[in-house]
Write a structure and sequence with these properties.
Number of strands: 7
Largest sheet: 4 strands, antiparallel
Structural class: alpha+beta
Strand order of the largest sheet: 1-2-3-4
Strand content: 15-25%
Distance between the termini: 19 Å
Shape: elongated
Number of helices: 5
Amino acid sequence: MDQEVNTAPEFVVEIDTATVARGRTTILRSRRASAWTSSIAAGIIIGLGGGGALVFPDNWPLMLLIALPGVFLALAAGSQFTAVRRLQEAWRQAGIPAVAMRISAAGLHCSNEAAPAVFLPWPAIAGIHLKRRLGQQMLVLELAPGTTATTPGVVGLDHPDVQRALRKKTLGVRGLWFGVRPLRQPLEQIDRAFAHFTGGRLRCLP
């Protein structure tokens, strides 16, 4: 591997597309289950309020108050179903990239769900952090201060999905992130590639 890094013009980090597809299926299934749970709970609450109004017609204002949270819950469930459909359609259109990163002397080409085609010259990257979220490891690219879509050499940061991703911090770092699990190349190899092409300035492992 060291020989490959030292002689190849770039180091390619591939994505295990089957792992990503399974992860997406799990996420969609979980969100649908949550939406259905909200829908059922809303139906029960509304049913209790409506049934109470029939049994106790003189107390209909109280029964209305009982049913009202169910109405809000039903509206929230509808929003959840809409969000699931939009996410599924977005993933269908975007597909799954075969390559997550191309590391070279010029900089880093990267692609993920939020960043379909981004190029960052090395001065635009302040650090690469290995983080853990919900038991999963993530690589987070921290942009150098002042780096924007108009920074010389930068490509793709003006994409709307990228901008949304950059507006919030991921595990305390504002930048682009990649799940480690779907990456085909081991972290040790990726770390050595970063070190090789940046003269040791950037590492993803301690």
